[in-house]
Amino acid sequence: MAEKDNPLYKFATAIYYIIDTPVTFIREKFVVPNQKKYPWYHQQYRRVPTIDECYTDDVVCYTEANCQFMRDKSVEDEILFILRSRFEQCAFYHGDDDYLCDDLRKTYDDATAAWFAKYGDMGIGLNVKNAYMKQKHRMIWERRHGPVGSGMRDQPTKA
User: Fold this and answer.
1) Keyword annotations for this protein (predicted)?
2) Domain annotation covers residue 85
3) Greatest extent of the chain over all pairs of C-alpha atoms, in Å
4) How far is Cα 88 from Cα 91, in angstroms, rounded to an integer?
């Protein structure tokens, strides 16, 4: 006898659909359309224009861009903290077998390198304008000499 011909199976399936059909209908027709698309549980700030979109004499735009930059930095600091904590916990748990944590180590090292490329060597003058100038100078350097860390070319190319 096939499973679908079994009376117990038919009874269980009927009970399942009696309970599931109204629940699925209400969820699909009322709950899901009225949900927020991104249910965040922390404060969300609107993205403001970046420093390269501001006029030179627009103090309000500069201040908003600087606040956005500082918020982004604090988020990236917390991401690094979480990645470092995960790696340290993995290394502590596995002890001598820390090769099991190589993927976490690589992720943390990549994130650290990206953080340093953006915020490193900024000193006390950490603001959006100095970070923008650092990014501009790095791009000019890479255009003339190749990627940073690869050594200088023999003949710099004209920018």
Assistant:
1) Electron transport, Membrane, Mitochondrion, Mitochondrion inner membrane, Respiratory chain, Transport
2) yes
3) 85
4) 5
Residue in 114, 90, 112 with CA at minimum distance from that of residue 102: 90
Whether residues 116 and 62 fall in one domain: yes
The 10 Å Cβ neighbour count of residue 65 is: 22
**49 SS3 class:** coil
Q: Which pair of structure tokens corresponds to residue 104?
A: 């976490």
- pLDDT tens for each residue of 7-46: 899 999 999 999 999 999 999 999 888 877 776 677 777 8
Q: How many CB atoms lie within 10 A of CB 14?
A: 10
Asked whether residue 74 falls in the same domain as residue 141, the answer is yes
Tally of CA atoms within 13 A in the half-sphere of 97 that contains its CB: 3
Sign of torsion over alpha carbons 140, 141, 147, 152: positive
- Cα gap 106→49, rounded to integer Å: 33
Tell me if 150 is assigned to some domain. Answer: no
